[in-house]
Prior knowledge:
Largest sheet: 6 strands, parallel
Number of strands: 6
Distance between the termini: 18 Å
Helix content: 40-55%
Oligomer: single chain
Shape: elongated
CATH class of the largest domain: Alpha Beta
CATH topology of the largest domain: Rossmann fold
CATH superfamily of the largest domain: HAD superfamily/HAD-like
Strand order of the largest sheet: 3-2-1-4-5-6
Amino acid sequence: MIQAIIFDFDGLIIETEGPTYQSWQEVYRVYGYALSFSTWSSMVGTTQSDFDPRLELQKLVNKDLDWGNIELKRQEIENALIEAQPVLPGVEDYLREAGRLGLKMGIASNSPSPWVTKYLTQHGLQNCFDTISTSDYVQRLKPDPALYLAALHGLQVKADDAFALEDSPLGIRSAKGAGLYCVAVPNELTCKLDLSQADFQLGSLGDMPLEELLQEVNSQKTQRAAF
Length: 227
């Protein structure tokens, strides 16, 4: 039976991925170029991508750019957009219901701890989680399973007794690599990506009450164990 839930953070609890993409789109527009989502998509859910928006723009404009100044302005745009973001639909209901049911809760995020705790605190969610596994504490990030394995260790539960909530293909790979059942909950960006590796998918956490999802997860896990 499920004893714990492990949440991704960016794009699952707070929509930070869209603002990051929007801020880079604005940088490209200043120089007369578009940054398509198909180009950007490899950046979603990871800080370790083969695509570097700085190098790509540098190639396009074919001249040296003042990246110190550009990055300051880009971060101003990104921060303003993120500050205006609410907690994503259903998240607070899930946290309240999980607490009522006595479930343990963790976070597994590719972002650093100060980033995650800043926005959890801003939205009054900092005390909802029993463990927070971030990029500060592991050597390999998603899609490697290290973050989820660290979260399981912090929660003191086995993978069979927990499930993950993820919004991106790389996050799903990470959770599955740690042996977790994974529910995909895409946002406006990641709904365009292939999330078929997930065990189950919701449009948002607002689409299904936690108790109903728990029944679905436990039922599927029981069926698989029977084969």
